[in-house]
């Protein structure tokens, strides 16, 4: 019989990643591609995923038909998207599509029961009781995603515009953000009409840098995000006390601003989302 190969995919709002191993867990190939939020931009996400599968199979010189794939995708929690994903059939031996937060939860706790809250471009929480997942949040930029990079970036640019119009005091942060748009409100307006969640989140490193320098607006923005993360953490901790991991691109920079009581309750992730996807693939 042909040997089995396992492919884990982590598809987020900013990028997607893939990791390919053999049955013994030996790494054979890995690659990174563009955004893969199947709710925000389904067709573009599927294109990015297909390209990623092609890259890793080509690098490892393995026929795709021998792959067991688990793809954890941002936006895959939405029922209408789940129905649409039923039509995605890449060449493989088996395919399981879950959300990116589910594979993150599996990776964070090594497959054992626990909870996770992802704070990246978007945000979502999950609890795994050893049998099933309970999801929290993840309903998109317009309605949900508290504590996320996209929300933080949008707030920062809103505040920069308020300061630009002298409604609020300016700060070095607001001045730098408006300089991105030639200090023109209309330029910012036109940009905002086409901006993706990843575009909004692109200003986040500047916000954190400003907060570290004591910028009054930078500190206020980061502290508001920290408060939202603490809010979302409470129901997760109620289900899995002492077993909550914070993951995603904002997890490390936001940590110093979280309430001390929450910091004490967080656990260090054992593995990343791709290790969780591969664990699910091996236990298909």
From TrEMBL:
It comes from the Bacteria. Residues 7-253 form the ATPase BadF/BadG/BcrA/BcrD type domain. It holds the Pfam family BcrAD_BadFG. Coiled coil: none annotated. GO terms for molecular function: kinase activity. Keywords: Kinase, Transferase. PANTHER family: N-ACETYL-D-GLUCOSAMINE KINASE. This is N-acetylglucosamine kinase.
